[in-house]
UniProtKB/TrEMBL annotation, chains A, B:
Its cofactor is Ca(2+). The lineage of its organism: Eukaryota, Metazoa, Chordata, Craniata, Vertebrata. It comes from the Eukaryota. The keyword Transferase does not apply. It comes from Danio rerio (Zebrafish). One of its GO terms (biological process) is nervous system development. Belongs to the transglutaminase superfamily. Transglutaminase family. Keywords: Calcium, Metal-binding. Binds 1 Ca(2+) ion per subunit. The keyword tRNA processing does not apply. The gene is f13a1a.2. InterPro entries: Ig-like_fold (IPR013783), Ig_E-set (IPR014756), Papain-like_cys_pep_sf (IPR038765), Transglutaminase (IPR050779), Transglutaminase-like (IPR002931), Transglutaminase-like_sf (IPR036985), Transglutaminase_animal (IPR023608), Transglutaminase_C (IPR008958). This is Coagulation factor XIII A chain. GO terms for molecular function: metal ion binding; protein-glutamine gamma-glutamyltransferase activity.
């Protein structure tokens, strides 16, 4: 006899925790028949038996009509898609006329494998004689013959995902349920059109851009030479919505959290990268992408999401920041959360969170690569999502930063955000999530240390304006960028900026006090024109003497190649210069750079970094500056013949000529365009020096309106040669034939 | 020719991320000799060569003297242990007298495998002719012959952990370093005695209890029958400090975070449990603990932490909330963070975070176990830690809740907190970490639903005062509890309480509006005396009629066994009662409970749950209530013979008699007491009915002062029979002998 023996209990009830349902793809459903216990000794009345004999023959989800009302008609696929807190109507076909006084029909909406009325995963609404309280609203809209049209309004906070529907006839005898029918499954999404929804956006033009636009422009290059590439978000493409739900299932996001936009976005920022949780994309900056697709080669997200979902949730190789941001943007827009891709130029990657980026120069004024561990990214892409932050005071609603590029772990997973842009601007960094990290990306100081011959370093210069130079995102109805720097930062050196820094320090940012450094009175700026990759060019150092005395400057200029992450590669140039500068004058000093010197060393995205370390001879005060130069890539041409019209053939050709004296090997050419074609990939084993390739495809536009065709050529020796072509697709030509009758 | 070929770069520099050092046990050290490049064409001067020839022979860490000053003399072990921002002194033994004008000596302090001056993992201080800025302060305290006493003050925010020290003689020729010597390794801890440290505590009596006390009392049982058990925190025991650092290494806590008490505690709350990160303890509530030690059988933390650290960081089996909280308390006190164990009686475990605990009664008024998924724990233990929250506005510093029992994932890992007690009290739930979860544990409403025969449920009663009934923690200098409920909650039904609920709703807690329920005008309370396990007893339901009319109440009483987590087991009693109650009177209704009915069903910790569902016949309004009864366990006696004195033998015996008519099998008896003995475990294969066991051990007290000896008997049929014995250990008897001389 054992007093404390185990009892027979359902497994989920054991221990401290009940089961938490984390999958939208698993399901469990109630039985088709449920018999009630006998009601009275006399048995059911004739009337009761008549009421019981009602049958639901079918459910018409009115897919086309409802999708039009719910702004979901652009989604491909045959199932209904609706948005929260807006009514949709379905038609129940019965075997007899419905009688509200006599009959009782319930509609059940289920999600997941453990539906529970108290958890929002099992919703029951009723029509007929007995009303039931429910978070979803229902009403009889119309009755016609044996059909009833029922209006259903999912509540403004309901879980988003794929729901199952059952119609249940309830009588004194029991419940009779319709059969499980996947055709009547429907999706509920966030609703930016509804003011009760946390993702509500006021203006239709904003919703059109941030929810409905299927293509976008991502900005890269460097801050004074902004370049662009188009991106196919393709959130409405066939299978993309299911893929987004699969991502959440694979990431074990509890269904309970899926009605909360803040939670969905936070989880998604971890799930877009593979680190820690086998998320969608494998980040790689290694230069060797032969085991997958190079980050620079992608043209859009659908290819990535569909590959991930269809191949058993194995992370897709490879991504860098714009691929992460582009894919997350698809994810949020697809689920109905307004989102956009933002580029931060000169983005600090601060390993320590101390708001300092330390650059160590060696004895000779060159960057000491073994001691410089921080870096400033030429640009870094993240996302903004728009939502009410129910968990925060009101003023922190609005745009939120989310960054899914794996940089640092936030609370154990590689993710960052959502964090309020307003809070970042005000230095109010206590609120979740990861505000200090984002603040550092924008507001770090660059500290130049110089070591003497004994290896002892001292700070020679602090640049408080290098980082977070400019933030941009795409304008509405244009591929131009909109400068949104002022939504993140007060202007440099303003009183308000200093107050924000003080606030940030009261919120846990380490105080940044430096010894006062001697003012050199002299500045150096580096200047160039646009330079094509493979060209010789001239660099001008403008030495500006702001003092009232002439001075002599001795400067060391180092040139090295650099990744867009600010990580430096090989040096290719080291030159010493000496110049005398009159009081209040600027003296240009030129340095000639030969293509033969830099081309053998170039790394992805073809950036060169020049670091200048100088000394004013008279005062012995040090000077330093750096500048990244982004070389211009060869051209890719897209041509079209024929006039674009839905359903009509159109010929598109992409042309490229290898301008180099060496062959390009294993070249990948991608062609993409939502509403036009599914991503096409063409492989060339080599393109010989001076040779041209021409890739021509025939496409049949599937939708009218403004469309973008984008092309990207990529190989290990030449990355990210892109171009895009925009054009208007006309509506299908109406061929009027005698046999077709039109309504007048 | 490949333009974009990979360059030779150190591996950690590839990609977006630099290496983050996450281990205090791995190390890399600078070379013993570093030669500088030749300085001048003439070579070094004679003077320079003389300066270079200084040698450091040894470093005396002055362990005993420094430990006394730093309140670390109670830690076992031979290495120095100091606290931040307080000076410690070391003596450098040189081969000649030190000359401050001529010589230059640096002291280097290193932690981890990637020491970096900019990251706080490589600190250099200097004495002699050339000063160097450093976060740690240094000064020459005294010189005597060839020795120099140097005072060193680690900064108030420095990383805590085990540091290595090197002395370096710097000359024009280069650097000469002392050899790596593990004997001079020293530990830096948080410093509650120093007002610059974020864990500063004002009062010495608080520091003595929350940092220095090695034993504590944990409260369990039920809120109206609070029981206690002693716990050996043993934070100063040999090996425990190293084990705590090993826990952080195993959990990959970046060294950079280890100077930040908030981060250390947050990481620790995840690392104490094994879920997700192979942390210290495996939580189990299964009832079958045969593959490890039952949660109820432990007497303290050192046994657990030492087992984890010595057996390759394999999670230790098994724990429930008090074991988690006791072990985390050891961890924080050991590192110098003030901490205490708190018990919350009637702690809601809210799966959905909606602040509702749903109890579903079936048609007959019994708890419907398949539909009741939430539970209220009879009690739940968590920790409080005391610190300044540098990341939050000032008013949220002070005591913080940390809960390492795996209940829900917080941001991907099972952890909770730290969250400010002040913020919880005010309903200011936006700030990190996990405030809403803790708020729910304290403030959830219990909602009673009743289903009709068709399975349709409706709410019949809302109890807003059942949850978070009382919070207690140990008093100073006493085993009695201190009621700290008012530090978490304003009084029930006060204006301030309503305002806090409104604030909580503005911070993301779902609004809790219920339909107004009819007032029954009648209350039921369940009353009992103390009941010994195995006794028959009588339960009294007091039916209180608050109305001015007589009424009749029909009630169903269900009795079932229940785990301390509120998860219910088998029913053993179902009784219907009917009673007439006069206006404004209370009518007692008794129910007799037989031991034979409940004993076969009992589960751990011997709790019974009674649920009453009633109906007032005249008005048809429902009534409901529940109560948990904790049965009293048999006694364990501890006796001592001899007078306790350091270094003298002392006999201790623990006695137990099996009061049952069945044998107790595989019984484990633990004896523990910091400063007295290391944990001893005695196994009995069985104790026959009526048989007694007597376990006698001889112990030799190692330290004087108040000591606690604790015993715990545990087997699967009888859990957690504990007792403790407190006594004063006298100082070692001084045997005065003629040969020993005393200072006057």
């Amino acid at each position: 006899m054992n007093m404390m023996s185990l009892k027979n209990q359902p497994a989920w009830r054991w221990g401290a925790r009940a089961i938490i349902d984390k999958s939208n793809s698993l399901e469990s459903n109630p039985p088709p028949h449920e018999k009630f216990p006998t009601v009275s000794p006399r048995g059911p009345t004739d009337e009761a038996i008549r009421a019981a004999s009602l049958s639901v023959l079918s459910i018409d989800m009115r897919v086309t009509e409802n999708k039009n009302v719910h702004h979901t008609d652009t989604y491909k696929g045959s199932n209904l898609i609706v948005r929260r807190n807006t009514e949709f109507t379905i038609i129940l076909k019965l075997d007899r006329a419905f009688n509200e006084q006599q009959h009782q029909v319930e509609l059940e909406f289920l999600i997941g494998s453990s539906p529970d009325e108290n958890k929002g995963t099992y919703i029951i609404v009723s029509i007929g004689k007995e009303k039931q309280d429910s978070s979803w609203k229902s009403r009889v809209v119309a009755m016609h013959g044996n059909s009833v049209m029922v209006g259903i309004t999912p509540d403004a906070k309901c879980i988003i995902g794929r729901f199952r529907i059952f119609a249940v006839v309830v009588s004194v005898l029991g419940k009779e349920r319709t059969q499980r029918n996947p055709d009547t499954d429907f999706y509920v999404l966030f609703n930016p059109w509804n003011s009760e929804d946390e993702v509500y956006m006021d203006k239709e033009e904003d919703r059109q851009e941030y929810v409905m636009n299927e293509v976008g422009t991502i900005y890269n290059g460097v801050h004074n030479n902004i370049t662009t590439r188009s991106w196919n978000f393709g959130q409405f493409e066939e299978g993309v919505l299911d893929a987004c739900l699969t991502v959440m299932d694979a990431g074990n996001v509890p269904l309970l959290f899926r009605g909360n936009a803040t939670e969905v976005v936070r989880q998604a920022s971890a799930l877009m990268n593979s680190q820690g949780d086998n998320g969608v994309l494998v980040g790689s900056w290694s230069g060797d992408y032969s085991s997958g697709t190079a980050p620079t080669a992608w043209t859009g997200s659908p290819e990535i999401l569909l590959k991930y979902a269809s191949e058993g949730c194995v992370p897709v190789c490879f991504a860098q920041c714009w691929v992460f941001a582009g894919t997350l943007n698809t994810f949020v827009r697809c689920l109905g959360i307004p989102g956009r891709v933002v580029t931060n130029y000169c983005s600090a990657h601060d390993n320590t969170g101390n708001l300092k980026t330390d650059i160590v120069l060696d004895e000779d004024g060159r960057m000491d690569k073994s001691r410089t561990r921080d870096s400033v990214w030429n640009y870094h892409c993240w996302n903004e999502v728009f939502m009410k932050r129910l968990d925060l005071p009101d003023q922190y609603s609005g745009w939120q930063v989310v960054d899914c590029t794996p940089q640092e772990t936030s609370d154990g997973l590689f993710r960052c955000g959502p964090t309020s842009v307003n809070a970042i601007k005000e230095g109010e960094l206590s609120y979740p999530f990861d505000a200090r990290f984002v603040f550092a990306e924008l507001n770090s100081d660059v500290i130049y240390h110089k070591s003497n011959k004994y290896g002892k370093t001292k700070i020679i210069h602090v640049d408080t304006s290098y980082v977070g130079k400019q933030l941009v995102t795409k304008k509405h109805d244009s591929n131009d960028y909109m400068d949104i720097t002022s939504s993140y930062k007060y202007s440099e050196a303003s009183l308000k900026e200093r107050q924000v820094m003080q606030m940030a320090e009261r919120r846990g940012v380490p105080s940044r006090k430096y010894l006062t450094l001697p003012e050199a009175g002299v500045e150096i700026q580096i200047q160039t024109n646009t330079i094509k990759i493979g060209d010789d060019f001239r660099l001008t150092m403008n030495i500006k003497n702001k003092s009232s005395k002439a001075c002599t400057v001795i400067a060391t200029v180092t040139g090295c190649v650099v990744f867009y992450t600010g990580i430096t590669g090989s040096d290719f140039k080291l030159e010493n210069k000496k110049a005398s500068v009159q009081a209040s004058k600027t003296e240009p000093v030129t340095i000639d750079i030969k293509a033969v010197d830099y081309t053998p060393h170039l790394v992805e995205q073809a950036n060169l970094l020049f670091v200048v370390y100088g000394i004013v001879e008279e005062t012995e005060t040090p000077l330093t500056t750096m500048r990244v130069i982004n070389l211009q890539l060869p051209e890719l041409t897209i041509k079209m013949s024929g006039s674009p019209r839905v359903g009509s053939d159109l010929l598109v050709s992409v042309e490229f000529t290898n301008p180099y004296n060496f062959p390009l090997l294993k070249v990948e050419l991608r062609l993409d365009g939502p509403g036009l074609i599914q991503t096409k990939v063409k492989h060339y084993s080599q393109i010989l020096p001076g040779a041209s390739v021409n890739y021509t495809v025939s496409i049949v536009p599937r939708a009218h309106g403004k469309k973008v065709l984008m092309a990207c050529l990529d190989c290990s020796a030449l990355r990210q040669v892109t171009n895009q072509l925009e054009f208007e697709v006309l509506k299908k030509e109406l061929v009027t034939q005698g046999t077709i009758r039109f309504r007048s």
